[in-house]
Amino acid sequence: MSGFSLRYFLQIILNNFPMKQQKILVFLFLMQVVAYPVSGQGIWNLQKDKDGIKISSRKSTTSVFNDIRVELDLPGNTDQLSAILLDVAKYKEWSYATKKSVLIKQLGPGKLIYYTEIEVPWPATNRYFYANFELKQNAADHSVQVVATNLPDFEPATKDLVKVPFTKGVWNITPKTKNSIHVDYILELNPGGSLPAWVLNLFSTKGPLETFENIKKMMTALNP
Q: What class is the 45-222 domain?
């Protein structure tokens, strides 16, 4: 709302309502003004829709890299996709730009710590992070949630690589039919350092699309 519109609205209140009502109306109006930009941050904008894979983005409150959301249906069941996500050593086979991925420590069933190096096009420097991975199963509806969040202070900095300050990936996996599941994935990322716009674009559209195309092929192979 412009400064003129705001002054005009407040003048109407001051000229037409008693003092007690003025205070209430001004308070409610200011609450709406404050809430509006916050609610706007949650709006997802569709960037790509290909072969049933929908990729959306929204402006991040903490990073130059937009939050990414991927939605799609897959053949198979939640156990099959869970097994793929738990097999950290094979991430480089399907996860875009993953140069290296290593299991660091198994903390328990569905809980682990892993290391990943992300390959970034020259002249940018490769990124790396350690992450805490937790998989939770809901016995009532057979859904699965996976949350992977980086551990910024887990190990000393790696030479010649840039540490990712923050990354959080959330997978919500729900059965759709007897032989299919629905995936809703959200990635929040601060890649650290400085990256050219064209590199950021690769990771915001091409990266998610290739990653989930690979997952779709794997799940289709498991369910011919």
A: alpha beta
